[in-house]
């Protein structure tokens, strides 16, 4: 939790003729109500102080200002508003200088834009990331940024939400100077004194001429409008950002500010803002697993990876990118060469794209050591196995690790389904075992499921979370079960999709409905991308234990039996011609589906896209609730983070659990009960949902409790 701002959240001090105002509101100097009123009071004090001629704005600690206080969104507003404070700063009769170090983001940058001059340390990061929270810069940013740096550059900053460095900011004209040291006070004072010596006036951004070339501005706005309608059509705030910049071009400054306020309030009220802010806090909460509070992580200085297949190579790249030395183990020279080549390929692609030099690649690969002997792991602090998904094979690998690894080495498995308790129990040091479930491509995908076996020691789990931080991954704590959080839930909503396909919806309609909801891909496209053989192997593994009364759709099996495993074989549910990645609907697949419907004696019926999504989401939410109820996920938010970062769940909807609260748990339960009339075995309402609905409670109410 952000600590309540203390009485001196904004400090005032006088240095010669300069009035220094320091925002001191840890952890990121967010502009909460108290900071805003004290900031305003400080500017007033500076303006009326008889012996000062200029004002210097600073942030205490590691940053200038991280933005508005996100925790206030959705609560009743407390005056003064940030736009008022910014206007007050800009109106100051004495020159106001912002000296930026660390980050100046969102409202933080807007405060700096309201100042009259800006200096930033060379490692400062500036940005207007409001779009990532479903908002627009609402404290004058949409009006001041285009006036200062032009419509094109301002739109790029606001629509991408990206952070830029001091050099780029200087080139754009967003700041005036780059400081030579990171001592913001000393640099800011020197710069301000220089301005005073030069009798520099209060110079207001509202008067800047960045929009003077009206034709260029109009062109930039229209280009942004076209781009937004193409690439972010699901999102609400990007078009509002474009509208606000249009207002900056067409209206006097004060009218533009009023317009910006209206648009900002619309964004603030949108469910997308609620979803995106939920996602922001959820991924920060997910990092705080109980073990990370109890125990210190073990030191990780070198790592071993067993297996040089797609997964092993991807994991090796992720580790190399984090600066770690990596030993890759394969069973023979040919496999090792293949694994090393897969690693190299990733860097070659970066070189081809101009994003890496040959020397950088050579430096990274110097940290990769291949071997066909487990003995090469004797000094490793952590070993991650990514071998074939088979219990006997995994146990054999762990027996070797038990033999060669030093005491205290963390032994991790990248299994996606297997019982990690059984793997741990098979060796002499079960307390050192943990699941690190990476997602493919492992060097790209953000999610890392940290799977916690019963006997694992707390410092091993803390080490896993620490590793995730080093790898810039988003970790989620999961318990042991078939599929952990993500794949367990996936199996159920994929089954719901299969049922709909057999009942009459085409895979192409289902995929389209799922994409229209906001996923980048539908379930059948995902299967084609991942390789149909993977799911097929899992289905075969489960066949013996599957409840024979449970509905089982065989369409995917029929497709796999033909060797159609998706993109890599040129056909799966879709047809991929000329090695392309965009599949076309395949009439032969439709014929297979027809034949399967006949075999199962099903008369196909039509589904609307809305019906498809109600079933798809109800299946996902119900199984996710089971996962929470059984303690496999600690809280609903852990499910949300898993799905947003590992399964393409649209971030603006917050995650499946947030979405369930948004549409109302009672209505989800009503859907499940309706579907249960056709198939009561598949559609069993989760006890957790039934209980919450009876109590009139939300899933969100469980997020605080763990
Ligand atoms: C805005 O400004 C709207 C305006 O245009 C208009 C207004 C009218 N508020 O990420 P970390 C917490 S929208 C409240 O782990 P890092 C965070 O939850 C805002 N709390 O640290 C965490 O708490 P805890 C635009 C915030 O060093 C702790 O601080 N600004 C805020 O890796 C540490 O965070 C943004 O979108 C906040 N604004 O990264 C910036 N920010 O310890 C959002 C952070 O209890 N923030 N917290 O878990 C960030 O991007 C990163 O947090 C930052 C620091 C780069 C600042």
End-to-end gap: 14 Å
Are any ligands bound, and if so which? (S)-3-Hydroxyhexanoyl-CoA
* Annotated CATH architecture of the largest domain: Alpha-Beta Complex
Total of DSSP H or I helical runs spanning 4+ residues: 29
Shape: globular
Helix content: 40-55%
State the name of the first-level CATH class of the largest domain: Alpha Beta
Largest sheet: 8 strands, mixed
The largest sheet has its strands arranged as: 12-11-10-13-14-15-16-17
Low-confidence stretches: 1-5
| Structure classification | alpha/beta
Beta-strand percentage range: 5-15%
The overall average pLDDT, rounded, is 96
Number of discrete domains: 3
Number of strands: 19
What does this structure look like?
A hairpin with an 8-residue loop joins strand 15 (433-438) and strand 16 (447-452). Mean pLDDT is 96; it is low at 1-5. This protein is of the alpha/beta class. Helix 20 packs across helix 25 (609-629). The chain has 29 helices and 19 strands. It has three domains: 2-268, 2-enoyl-CoA Hydratase, Chain A, domain 1 (Alpha-Beta Complex), CATH 3.90.226.10; 300-478, Rossmann fold, CATH 3.40.50.720; 486-705, N-(1-d-carboxylethyl)-l-norvaline Dehydrogenase, domain 2 (Orthogonal Bundle). The two termini are 14 Å apart. Pathway: Lipid metabolism; fatty acid beta-oxidation. It holds the Pfam family ECH_1.
């Amino acid at each position: 939790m952000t600590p309540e701002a203390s009485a001196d959240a904004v400090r005032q001090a006088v240095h010669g003729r300069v009035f220094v105002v320091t925002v001191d509101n840890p952890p990121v100097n967010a502009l909460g109500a108290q900071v805003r009123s004290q900031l305003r009071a400080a500017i007033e004090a500076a303006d009326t102080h008889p012996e000062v001629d200029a004002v210097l704005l600073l942030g205490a600690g590691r940053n200038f200002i991280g933005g508005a206080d996100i925790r206030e969104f959705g609560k009743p507003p407390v005056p003064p508003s940030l736009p008022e404070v910014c206007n007050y700063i800009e109106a100051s009769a004495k020159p106001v200088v912002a000296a930026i170090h660390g980050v100046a983001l969102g409202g933080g940058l807007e405060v700096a834009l309201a100042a009259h001059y800006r200096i930033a340390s060379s490692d400062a990061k500036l940005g207007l990331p409001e779009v990532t929270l479903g908002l627009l810069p609402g404290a004058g940013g949409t009006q001041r940024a285009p006036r200062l740096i032009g419509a094109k550059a301002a739109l790029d900053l606001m629509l991408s939400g990206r952070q830029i460095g001091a050099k780029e900011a200087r080139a754009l004209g967003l700041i005036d100077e780059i400081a030579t040291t990171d001592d913001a006070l000393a640099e800011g004072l020197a710069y301000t004194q220089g301005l005073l010596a030069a009798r520099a006036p209060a110079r207001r951004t509202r008067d800047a001429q960045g929009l003077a070339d009206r034709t260029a501005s109009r062109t930039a706005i229209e280009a942004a409008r076209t781009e937004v309608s193409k690439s972010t059509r699901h999102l609400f705030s990007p078009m509002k950002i474009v509208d606000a910049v249009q207002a900056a071009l067409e209206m006097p400054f004060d009218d533009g500010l009023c317009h910006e306020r209206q648009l900002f309030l619309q964004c603030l009220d949108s469910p997308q803002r609620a979803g995106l802010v939920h996602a922001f806090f959820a991924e920060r909460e997910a990092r705080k697993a109980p073990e990370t509070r109890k125990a210190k992580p073990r030191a990780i200085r070198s790592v071993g990876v067993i297996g040089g297949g797609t997964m092993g190579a991807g994991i090796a790249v992720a580790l190399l990118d984090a600066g770690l030395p990596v030993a890759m183990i394969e069973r023979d020279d040919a496999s090792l060469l293949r694994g090393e080549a897969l690693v190299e390929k990733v860097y070659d692609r970066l070189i081809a794209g101009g994003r890496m030099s040959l020397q950088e690649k050579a430096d990274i690969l110097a940290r990769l050591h291949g071997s066909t002997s487990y003995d090469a792991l004797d000094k490793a602090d952590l070993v991650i196995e990514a071998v074939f998904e088979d219990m006997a094979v995994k146990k054999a690998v762990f027996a070797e690790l038990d033999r060669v690894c030093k005491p205290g080495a963390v032994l991790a498995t990248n299994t996606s389904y297997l019982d990690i308790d059984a793997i741990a129990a098979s060796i002499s040091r079960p307390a050192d075992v943990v699941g690190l479930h990476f997602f493919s491509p492992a060097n790209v995908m953000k999610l890392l499921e940290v799977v916690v076996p019963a006997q694992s020691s707390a410092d091993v789990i803390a080490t896993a979370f620490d590793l995730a931080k080093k790898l810039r991954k988003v970790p989620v704590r999961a318990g042991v079960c078939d599929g952990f959080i993500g794949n367990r839930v996936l199996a159920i909503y994929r089954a719901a999709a299969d049922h709909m396909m057999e009942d009459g919806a085409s895979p192409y309609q289902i995929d389209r409905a799922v994409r229209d909801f906001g996923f980048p891909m539908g379930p059948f496209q995902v299967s084609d991308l991942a390789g149909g053989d993977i799911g097929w192997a899992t289905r075969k593994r489960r066949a013996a234990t599957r409840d024979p009364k449970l509905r089982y759709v065989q369409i995917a099996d029929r497709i796999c039996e033909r060797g159609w495993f998706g993109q890599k074989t040129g056909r799966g549910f879709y047809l991929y011609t000329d090695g392309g990645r965009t599949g076309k609907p395949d009439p032969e697949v439709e014929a297979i589906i027809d034949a399967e419907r006949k075999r199962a004696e099903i008369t196909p019926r039509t589904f609307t896209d809305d019906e498809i999504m109600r079933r798809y989401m109800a299946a996902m939410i119900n199984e996710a609730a089971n996962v929470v109820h059984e303690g496999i996920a600690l809280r609903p938010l852990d499910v949300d983070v898993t799905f947003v970062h590992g399964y393409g769940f649209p971030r603006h909807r917050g995650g499946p659990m947030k979405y369930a609260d948004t549409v109302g748990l009672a209505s989800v339960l009503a859907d499940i009960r309706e579907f249960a009339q056709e198939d009561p075995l598949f559609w069993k309402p989760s006890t957790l949902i039934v209980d919450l609905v009876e109590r009139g409670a939300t899933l969100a109410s469980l997020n605080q409790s763990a």
